[in-house]
Amino acid sequence: MYYKQGLRLGILGGGQLGRMLIQAAVNLDLEIFVLDPDTDAPCRYLAKEFQVGSLKNYDTVYHFGKQVDILTIEIENVNVAALEQLEKEGIKVFPQPHVIKLVQDKGLQKDFYKQHHLPTAPYYLLQHKDELAQYLAFLPAVQKLRKEGYDGRGVHKIVSEKDYPNAFEQPSVLEQMIAFEKELAVIVARNANGDMAAFPAVEMDFHPEKNLVEYLFSPANIKNDIESKAVNIAIQVAENLGIIGLLAVEMFLTKDGEVLINEVAPRPHNSGHHTIEANMVSQYEQHLRAILNMPLGDTAIKLPAVMVNLLGEPGFEGPVHYEGLETAMAIPGVNIHLYGKKKTKPFRKMGHITITDPDLEKAKEKAQIVKQTLKAIT
Amino acid sequence: MYYKQGLRLGILGGGQLGRMLIQAAVNLDLEIFVLDPDTDAPCRYLAKEFQVGSLKNYDTVYHFGKQVDILTIEIENVNVAALEQLEKEGIKVFPQPHVIKLVQDKGLQKDFYKQHHLPTAPYYLLQHKDELAQYLAFLPAVQKLRKEGYDGRGVHKIVSEKDYPNAFEQPSVLEQMIAFEKELAVIVARNANGDMAAFPAVEMDFHPEKNLVEYLFSPANIKNDIESKAVNIAIQVAENLGIIGLLAVEMFLTKDGEVLINEVAPRPHNSGHHTIEANMVSQYEQHLRAILNMPLGDTAIKLPAVMVNLLGEPGFEGPVHYEGLETAMAIPGVNIHLYGKKKTKPFRKMGHITITDPDLEKAKEKAQIVKQTLKAIT
After folding, report:
1. Which of A77, A334, A376, B340 has a Cα-to-Cα distance from A83 of 20 to 30 A?
2. How far does the CA of residue B226 sit from the closest CA of chain A (Å)?
3. What is the mean pLDDT of residues A102-129?
4. What's the mean pLDDT when you consider all of chain A?
5. Which residue of chain B has the CA closest to A378?
6. How far is residue A78 CA from its own chain's centroid?
């Protein structure tokens, strides 16, 4: 166990994931250091030290990391060279720099799955847009930027030649479009002892326009063999990566019962928010247990849950106002999480709501009401 | 609803109750101000502003209160005159100063119960020790200081004349000793609209020497009619007080099925810690909902639970070390809450552990193991 009271934990990124990680870290008496470029970041008042600076700058990340005992991330887009140096100098960096490096590049990710015989959609790596010409027979496909894409940004559908003009010029992955039935996610934790524990699979419902999770259902409505398959794949990815910390594995369930890895995130994840109220251990505490090399917590479900992302309402930009809060909070089992962002803009993640109910169908009905009622406007 | 984003909430007291209140307040995007005399108080890194100063000093409390929109407490022993002035000047002070004043004085508390025909043990008010002489026939009794007693301090058993030399000289309540079967507690919330909601009754097991809760069981093992009686009494007390916020009502269940009020606390309480993991809404969020005049949350039980206070081990005083943490955390359903106190001393509240399990008896077995394993030493 790496734990000691008052251990200095550094978090790269001060957004909502960092915020919820701190809420869990309070229970373990850790001293929290946060680095974020935004003076108004959600973690601004919750850390022992909140430092403003770039996550991509070598010196900034290096000097920040030198102050702490264990360094973790809540966002992948950080300076890995600095993390590699810190690791050499004996700072515990979890997830490890080699994992972050791999995850930062969707091309390396795909090659990794292929190399380890892990199921994923067929793909090609492109350097330039003009290479698309040779893959006409491969369409329809999805073109994903290898780097810096997230929350639906950096993704284009390439259905036919007509879409070529809109394609990305930069290095990308051209992935076969999967006719999937559902999108699933499994979050696995692995500590330095090699202990592993997976949360039950959840089912994600994406916003039709923006590539953002709109509803999440726990447990997923899938057969036991599919559940086992999804959990086993997630465990294999974590094991092959040798990751220390959490790994969220997003997967496609195809119409013929195949489970294919879509992508992974080596940190607490949007698909695990519900675990705060709905599982025996939350993903945030589990991440801490993993990086502190503590025994992993029980991932069992306490109650079925639906999670709804509270996205900035289209058409509104500016200081946020939450409309319908009172109505939403009057519904039994509704748990509101506001992220403390001062300004809203269309589709910005402003918060989330977890609805727990012994009956998942009732939770779904409540989620619909919440979705129609609670709005982040100005 | 008094709520708005970024509302400034002041908390008098920066101890563990304030700490857990902040963990809940994060979800509602409140700006937290904390006043505590101790620079190392558990809330020190979690507030937007943590101010060091006396809770009993008029000017300190007044100036602190002037900065915030809503002012609450996590300890009763605060300067009420300052709160009365702040209330006059339009600051929302919840619980209201008149409630705090009443609760600060166990004599006024007892008179209040009598006046409102609320069941409580027979008592006399004493100004001086020498008045004890006239109550010989009333013994055995418990002498409680009217003011400033807490966590078992300020309480003496007066079984016979032999105990008179040890009796308190200050103003006190002499209360008939109750041959009780169990001690129960019910936490009620009341908002400014007058909505009320009670948590199910819990059963408390006290440390034989120190008057501190050692184990708490949720739900209490009592018959339905006793549960109703306890809940109704708690609701009546809250209603008669007109309190806005949480009220924890501790009660004795006598061997012949009577329920008598022991004492009350107008704030989150040790007997409600388990609600964080074990109930649909936690007592901390419920307190916020009440003082923000929001709809109250669902108090239903998610899972049975046992709560164990982690008290400083006798014989140890100094910088704390938690022995057995790894073993305790390996048990499924164990939730550790360390309060971030740097130094331990005998019987100091250093943290608590909530064990949830679908089977309360299993939770009790686990609690015993935790109790034997996890120690706050130096």
Report:
1. B340
2. 26
3. 96
4. 95
5. B5
6. 15
Task: Inspect the interface and report whether the beta carbons of B1 and A325 lie closer than 8 Å.
Answer: yes
Tokens of A119: 């199921």
Q: How far apart are CA B261 and CA B252, in angstroms?
A: 6
Nearest of A331, A325, A350 to residue A340 by alpha carbon: A350
A5/B338 Cβ within 8 A: yes
Query: Does the beta-carbon distance from B280 to A31 stay under 8 Å?
Result: no
Question: Does A298 sit within 8 Å of B303, measured CB to CB?
Answer: no
pLDDT of residue B150: 64
Task: Give the CA-trace dihedral at A180, A186, A187, A189, to 10 degrees.
Answer: -130
Q: Do A23 and B23 touch (CB under 8 A)?
A: yes
Global pTM?
A: 0.95
**Cβ atoms < 10 Å from Cβ of A174:** 22
The answer to whether A283 and A187 are in contact (CB under 8 A) is yes
Contacts of A45 in chain B (CB under 8 A): 31-32, 46-48
Pick from A205-214, A260-269, A363-372, B130-139: least confident:
A205-214
Contact B332 A47 (CB under 8 A): no
Contacts of A332 in chain B (CB under 8 A): 280, 297-298, 300
- Tokens at A135, concatenated: 């893959």
ipTM of the complex: 0.94
Residues of A with Cβ-Cβ distance to B330 under 8 angstroms: 295
Cis peptide before B97 (omega within 30 of 0): no
Q: A322, A317, A308, A316: which is closest to A375 by C-alpha?
A: A322
End-to-end Cα spacing for chain B: 47
Q: How far is CA B215 from CA A169, B203, B204, B337, B363, in A?
A: 64, 8, 6, 15, 11
Partners of B304 on chain A (C-beta within 8 Å) are: none
Model confidence pLDDT, tens digit, residues B3-34: 988 899 999 999 999 999 999 999 999 999 99
Task: Look up residue A227 and give its two tokens.
Answer: 């559940």
**How distant, in Å, are the alpha carbons of B45, B178, B267 from that of B281?**
25, 33, 15
Search chain A and give the residue with CA nearest B299.
A332
**What whole-number distance in Å separates Cα of residue B215 and Cα of residue B9?**
32
* R_g of chain A, CA atoms, integer Å: 20
φ, ψ of residue A196 in degrees (nearest 5): -135, 150
Cα–Cα distance, A138 to A131 (Å, whole number): 12
CA distance A377 to A41: 19
pLDDT band for position A151 (cuts 50, 70, 90): low
